[in-house]
Amino acid sequence: MKIPLPDLLRKLREKQVERGLRPASERFGIRVWSWTAQRPRLYALASRVAARYLRFQGGGTRMIRRLPFGKGWTLGRDMPAPPGRTFRELYAKRKAR
Predict the structure, then answer these.
(1) pLDDT digit string (tens) for 66-97?
(2) Under a CB-based contact definition with an 8 Å cutoff, are residues 39 and 47 in contact?
(3) From CA 65, how far away is CA 43, in angstroms rounded?
(4) Please, is 64 exposed, middle or buried when counting C-beta atoms within 10 Å of its C-beta (0-12, 13-18, 19+)?
């Protein structure tokens, strides 16, 4: 059938945002992320902190059972913990070799 599901979902979310139907916490989170993403040094620092925190959250099983801001998402599933380094750090290390 080739239904463009990702495009349809994105457009639905856009309409929800335009109409103010998304939760206030989600709108706030997006604004904070947007503000941070416009400041490369702050974004790099926040990414490093988040990657290490999520690795810590994964513990010995390397699976995250609960996310601080994603409780609904992790109620029915676990998320693999990141390796503890950001993509930029991993890329720089690989490039240095």
Answers:
(1) 887 777 778 888 889 988 899 999 999 999 98
(2) no
(3) 25
(4) buried
Listed residue (17, 8, 28) closest to 69, CA to CA: 28
Other Cβ atoms closer than 10 A to 75? 9
Measured between alpha carbons, how far is 75 from 56 in angstroms, rounded to an integer?
19
C-alpha 84/C-alpha 75 separation (Å) is 23
Q: How far is 34 from 46, CA to CA, in rounded Å?
A: 13
Give per-residue pLDDT as tens, 38-59: 999 999 999 999 999 999 989 8
